[in-house]
Amino acid sequence: MTDFLNKFTKKQELRRLVVLLVIVLVLYEARSLMNTILLTFIFTYLIVHWVRLVQRWIPRVPVTLVVLLSYLLLILGLFYVVTDYVPMLVNQLVKMTNSLITFYQSADMHWLMKYLNRFVSSSTLATQARHGVTLAVTTLTNFGTLLVAVAMSVILSFFYTIELRQMNEFSKTFLSSQHLSWFFKDLDFFGKKFINTFGVVLEAQFFIALTNTALTMIALFFMKMPQIFALGLMVFIMSLVPVAGVIISLVPLSMVGYSVGGIRYIVYLIIVILVIHMIESYVLNPKFMSSRTELPIFYTFVVLLVSEHLFGVWGLIVGVPIFTFLLDIVGVKQIRVHKLPTTRDK
């Protein structure tokens, strides 16, 4: 058994393949916690890099102070989204629904409704109503689950970043394990690869999202839309989804636009989103994303479709980083490392 283990640990490619399969199996078994895992990773990654960036600008600032202020701003931002943006979107959805009901109950539509009643039975309507109630309950449940996952992720990432130096020192002790040092070294190898790959893609998509948000907010300002800042925040979050995010943001924007200017504003918003999508596809992606990952737009769309089918909504965000990570692992395309100064605890 010892000889077999020694031979196995000396075969680096086979060993790393087994470790990668173990990682995939563990993540699959922990799929019910995937929201918390991914959100914790994203929050931790962003805050750690933000702290290092601040230290590069202001070397003497204490790490603890930067972390505390960063999480205070993060919590205030999340509080604003939950208390201001979500009620606004729900209110606009209710207004839109009421407008549609009024439209269908008007005299002009009375003849059409009578004609449809001949083909649609009351049992069918009742079934559709039950499906609608079930969908509403499921949506509320998922939203509550997401809020819990966000809260847990913020807490976990806070404790990680507030003790960043201690966490790094303690994690390095696993590399000198007496029996499983090879396993933890391979785990460290894949972790560094994924963090670097995810960071490159996230950095590029972050600048793309900022540009998309600025252009959208300018258009919303000239259209005299309400709650421009809240809508801009929503566009920024959705623009973090490569390529498809700016199109997805059209749905809530259309709800608000319909309540303000009717069908005419929906047409305006479609034109605005199409123009911004063209700018993202033909200007921003080649400049920011392709310069780092060099993925063609066709591959990006295919990866998004497959990852959304496999991982749901999260696939739209992590699909491209995972695909780029796999390309790096198999040696198809290596991602250039972007090093920042190491964090110093003060």
UniProtKB/TrEMBL annotation:
The keyword Nucleotidyltransferase does not apply. It is a multi-pass membrane protein. The chain crosses the membrane at residues 14-30, 36-54, 61-82, 143-162, 200-222, 228-253, 265-285, 297-330. InterPro entries: AI-2E-like (IPR002549). Keywords: Membrane, Transmembrane, Transmembrane helix. It is found in: Membrane. Belongs to the autoinducer-2 exporter (AI-2E) (TC 2.A.86) family. This is AI-2E family transporter. It comes from Limosilactobacillus fermentum (strain NBRC 3956 / LMG 18251) (Lactobacillus fermentum).
